[in-house]
Design goal:
By secondary structure, the chain is of the alpha+beta class. The chain has a single domain, classed as 3-Layer(aba) Sandwich (Carbamate kinase), CATH 3.40.1160.10. 23% of the residues lie in helices and 7% in strands. It has a two-stranded antiparallel sheet with strand order 1-2. The radius of gyration is 15 Å and the shape is flat. It starts with 16 loop residues before the first helix and ends in a 25-residue tail after the last helix. It catalyses: L-aspartate + ATP = 4-phospho-L-aspartate + ADP. It is an enzyme of class 2 (transferase). GO terms for molecular function: aspartate kinase activity; ATP binding. This is aspartate kinase. InterPro entries: AceGlu_kinase-like_sf, Asp/Glu/Uridylate_kinase.
Length: 86
């Protein structure tokens, strides 16, 4: 769930019941990033970086040890090289 701020919505909660149930059945779970649902059930979109935000929020909800994000940069980094170039 998100708040009502379409275009820059913030994730307010994640119901992980269905995700956990499918994972326990060894199923692959595909979750769309960058979007959510408001309290009124309207589709909302998150702001810039919303897909990464979704990935981290899902990982946190599942109590994952880590969240790996693969993107279109040269090499492997532990942080965004545009933010921390060293």
């Amino acid at each position: 769930h998100t708040d009502n701020a379409h275009g820059k919505a913030r994730i307010t909660s994640i119901d992980d019941h269905n995700i956990q149930a499918h994972l326990q059945q060894n199923k692959v779970v595909v979750i769309a990033g960058f979007q959510g649902r408001s309290p009124e059930n309207h589709i909302t979109t998150l702001g810039r970086g919303g897909s990464d935000t979704t990935a981290v929020a899902i990982a946190a909800a599942l109590k994952a040890d880590e969240c790996q994000i693969y993107t279109d940069v040269d090499g492997v980094y532990t942080t965004d090289p545009r933010v921390e170039p060293k």
